[in-house]
Write a structure and sequence with these properties.
This protein is an all-alpha fold. The protein has 26 helices and 6 strands. A hairpin with a 2-residue loop joins β1 and β2. α5 crosses α6 and α9 crosses α10. The termini are far apart. This is ABC transporter permease.
Length: about 675
């Protein structure tokens, strides 16, 4: 009984918090499971409702009703707008959607702060609810008990709508068989818009009703989004009641878990998320089927010979491509002039980078060094996303391992740069080898979610392991790195930049040599024709694991370089936002362009730190615009502008790793057209 008394209030708080997450996650599940939109701006929809409700709250029932109506309507309109924004990306897969919606989240968050202010807003509830009641001998807020009742009623009502009404039948049909829905005269596009509008309305209503529990303020939307993603993964996409119980479990871990097992609570949620995703990827999908269905093609042995000879992975040894009038035969070796033409961007970029110290001021030079560090992280993402077909949102995990390894080595007196780089790369490679088996069997969106969970788990370790990482305060004050044995610590920006440039050039050169070697061709073939590679006896899993380890080592070098250039390290340097920036850099450059990834990283750092300096306080807005513009304007990246193959998918290239096979689209008359 004493145990119950001690933990009763946290347990009931966990139910209330969990049901708040349920209302948000129900909309996220609806958007992803029915409309097929991976909406990383869902937390911003919650924030729209929360800020609107808080602004209109005046302590009366009328103010609560007005706030609920206005917040729900505003988020509903935003959800409908999201449908229009994501419609052009329907055939480009979830990666483009994730980047677009993350950019919209940055824009929306900045606009909300500009409109409502950066401070947390007070929320006033009606006097009848702004009191406490007796619950098993304890006083408990009446509003939270009222919210629990409303959330349970909402779960029951939502289940009834989805299972017992014609509207619910149309929604289920849109998820299961949109072609059949179109054949019955319904418009899948209208259902798609309605679903996203309804998802936005749920998030907005949750924001208004949840504002007294989680007040609107900076960081609220990100926290709500991450926890809602955990709920959706644990509960699945098919049952509101499964989502309901998963949300309650997450709420209990967040409240009761903190009081019962505070050391374990930060790790439980994302560990459970990763475990569920890994199990689903192992049992729900046979190995080799993850890259999408393939049409019959040439003999796999002939294809492999073509790969080793230097031909693109998706082309046969000779002969025209299906659907094309003619197709050139790729020679086994490019002529010298073509090889120089391909190397020209690298040489031009190198000349520009070498000349930067003579052209820029000290602050800009330090930004260029940071861009090189982020560029190596982006190149490691290119290896995984563009070559191995494993889109990742968690590459900041090995990046963090390398960064903290270098900081701790410097603090222990190991200040020689090459030693730091080798040991940091080794530590990151070991980390990648440990988590690699959990990643390489999954494909597409599942990879994004697993790597996201790994990245968040790493972030939890960073915040908890204060003796090694410094916790939220980070690390600062460690000795400066020496370029070579016997030298002095580098303190000048030009010295640090030149060191970073040399390291980056060596790392990129080694990466390009490997990617253009037979091993790199095998990796490309694994992405483009995995089933055929397996059928011809190739250990695809081993190839992917080696690629994951090498990419982890490269990210570790980038993390080490970042610490050397910045001379400090904080959790924000290795958080989710940096992972999204690295993925954006890859999309800017082209998913298989190493040079493009470096240029993308430079553009991001320039936008975040240099351009934003002339418009203080609007860095997130500028970055959000960059995200949105990149997704729309550069679907194949910078490499695609010059007609190269590195830009991304084309009609004769393999589909992106997260893109489903093309589906028939409904015509205006309701008929299905190919």
């Amino acid at each position: 009984m004493e145990l119950l008394d001690a933990h009763l209030i946290p347990a009931v708080d966990g139910v209330a918090f969990g049901l708040l997450l349920f209302v948000v996650a129900a909309g996220l599940s609806l958007a992803f499971g029915t409309a097929g939109v991976l909406n990383l701006s869902h937390g911003t929809l919650y924030a729209i409702g929360a800020y609107t409700g808080a602004e209109l709250s005046d302590g009366t029932w009328g103010g609560l009703a007005l706030g609920l109506a206005a917040g729900t309507a505003a988020a509903c309109v935003a959800g409908a707008g999201l449908s229009a924004a994501t419609a052009p990306l329907a055939r480009r897969g979830h990666l483009a959607q994730a980047l677009l919606t993350f950019g919209l989240a940055l824009i929306g968050g900045d606009l909300l702060i500009q409109f409502f202010g950066a401070d947390e807003l007070p929320v006033r509830v009606p006097e009848a609810l702004d009191s406490s009641v007796t619950l098993l001998g304890h006083r408990y807020p009446a509003y939270r008990l009222c919210f629990i009742v409303m959330a349970v009623l909402l779960a029951a009502f939502g289940t009834w709508v989805l299972t017992r009404t014609r509207m619910g039948a149309a929604v289920r049909a849109a998820a299961d068989d949109p072609q059949m829905l179109a054949a019955t005269g319904h418009s899948p596009r209208a259902v798609h818009t309605g679903v996203l509008a309804a998802a936005g309305a749920l998030a907005g209503a949750a924001g208004v009703l949840g504002a007294p529990i989680i007040g609107p303020g900076p960081g609220t939307s990100e926290n709500v989004l991450m926890l809602s993603l955990v709920v959706v993964v644990l509960g699945g996409l098919r049952s509101l009641w499964a989502t309901f119980f998963a949300a309650v479990a997450v709420g209990e871990v967040q409240t009761l878990g903190v009081s019962v097992a505070p050391e374990l609570a930060p790790y439980l949620l994302f560990a459970a998320m990763a475990a569920v995703l890994v199990l689903r990827s192992r049992f729900a999908e046979p190995a080799g089927a993850g890259h999408g269905s393939e049409a019959p093609g040439p003999d796999p042995v002939a294809r492999l010979r073509g790969l080793l000879a230097g031909r693109p992975a998706g082309r046969a040894a000779a002969g025209p491509l299906p659907g094309r009038k003619h197709s050139p035969v790729w020679p086994a070796r490019l002529p010298g002039r073509a090889a120089w033409w391909q190397a020209a961007p690298l040489l031009v970029l190198l000349v520009v980078l070498i000349s930067l110290p003579a052209l820029l001021d000290a602050y800009s030079i330090s930004l260029a060094g940071s861009a090189l560090a982020l560029g190596l992280l982006a190149v490691s993402v290119t290896v995984l996303t563009g070559y191995a077909g494993l889109p990742t949102l968690g590459q900041t995990a090995p990046f963090a391992v390398g960064a903290y390894a270098t900081a701790n080595l410097a603090d222990a007196g190991w200040t020689v740069g090459p030693v730091q780089l080798v040991l940091s790369a080794l530590a990151a490679a070991v980390f990648a080898a440990v988590v690699g088996p959990a990643v390489i069997r999954a494909r597409g969106t599942t990879v994004l979610m697993i790597t996201l969970a790994i990245g968040e788990l790493t972030g939890a370790v960073v915040n908890q392991l204060k003796s090694v990482t410094g916790g939220a305060d980070g690390l600062v004050g460690f000795p400066a790195t020496r370029a070579l044995w016997g030298g002095e610590g580098m303190l000048e920006e030009s010295e640090l930049y030149n060191y970073a440039l040399v390291v980056a050039v060596v790392a990129v050169a080694l990466t390009l040599l490997v990617l253009r070697s037979p091993a790199g061709k095998l990796l490309t073939g694994t992405r483009g024709a995995e089933a055929r590679m397996r059928a011809s006896g190739h250990p695809v899993g081993r190839y992917l694991l080696v690629a994951h380890i090498c990419a982890g080592a490269l990210a570790g070098v980038g993390g080490s370089l970042m610490v050397t250039v910045q001379q400090y390290l904080s959790p924000a340097d290795v958080g989710f936002e940096i992972a999204a920036f690295a993925l954006l850099a890859v999309v800017i450059g082209g998913t298989t362009s190493v040079v493009g990834a470096l240029l993308g990283a430079g553009l991001i750092v320039a936008t975040r730190d240099w351009v934003a300096g002339s418009w203080p306080g609007h860095g997130p807005l500028l970055l959000g615009v960059l995200f949105v513009a990149t997704v729309y304007v550069l679907p194949r990246g910078l490499a695609g502008l010059r007609g190269g193959s590195g830009g991304g998918p084309s009609s004769d290239a393999p589909r992106p790793p997260d893109q489903p096979p093309p589906a028939p689209t409904p015509s205006p008359a309701g008929k299905v057209s190919p």
